[in-house]
Prior knowledge:
By secondary structure, the protein is an alpha+beta fold. The chain has helices at 15-23, 28-31, 123-150, and strands spanning 3-11, 35-43, 49-58, 61-70, 77-85, 88-100, 103-117. A seven-stranded antiparallel beta sheet has the order 1-7-6-5-4-3-2. Helix 1 crosses helix 3.
Amino acid sequence: MADHATVKTIINAPPAQCFAVALDYERYPDWAADIKTAVVLTRDDDGRGGEVSYRAAAMGRSTSYTLRYNYGSNPLRISWRLMNGDVMRRLDGEYEFAPVEGDPNSCEVTYVLTVDLAVPLPSFVKRRAEAKIMHTALDDLRRRVETLLTA
């Protein structure tokens, strides 16, 4: 059975800046704590990553997976689907970056994730892994974006 989570946060940066950091898949190892490598395998007509292969640390071991990214009509939204992975059957999600009303230098980030592991784990281990993914997706992203703004 897949686990699903949605989390929102505010980042002190314009939405376009947040979106640009999220699109730069090859730099994920620079700021996303558990991502060890990220290789863009294909690109769309706009040069954005289409399929990206990752190697990450997960629960004391290394895992590899490939995501296919999609970009719809919302210019500040990214979604993805798992193409293949060694410990996951499903790793689907999305980022949406929205302006904060009245503050053009802040962004509300919505992160949605659905995970289904190929191996059964106790629920407390799943919750810990989910919390770590959410931390990387939002807190590490925030630090990266805000650091780039002050550099």
